[in-house]
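Journal club side-thread
Mid-discussion, someone asked how the predicted structure for our own chain would compare to the paper's figures. Pasting it here so we can look after the session.
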Amino acid sequence: MTLPNILPLDSHNACLCQSCLLTKINHFLSEQYRSQPLERLISLAAPYQATPAIAGLDFSIVQGKYMFHRWAHLKRGYCCGNGCQECPWRTDNLNDPPLYL
């Protein structure tokens, strides 16, 4: 119940464990990052701004440091200006696949 409700579940092979749902959500978001304008992505994430960060969706821990994913940046709704690696406002990485897939 903590994961965002942003995609329809398949009636075939619809495992509902958190790991499988995270994989499906990240795959869906990866496609959205490539095909949707930034305004649409922000609108998709806006209802989840007040939700707690979820490991594997909002962030990963890489070499002992938190790396926030595009979804976390979109939930915040603006660029912090720190040059984050997965910042959706950076035009040089818009077509790159997210690092956590």
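Post-session note: Residues 6 and 44 are 8 Å apart (CA to CA).
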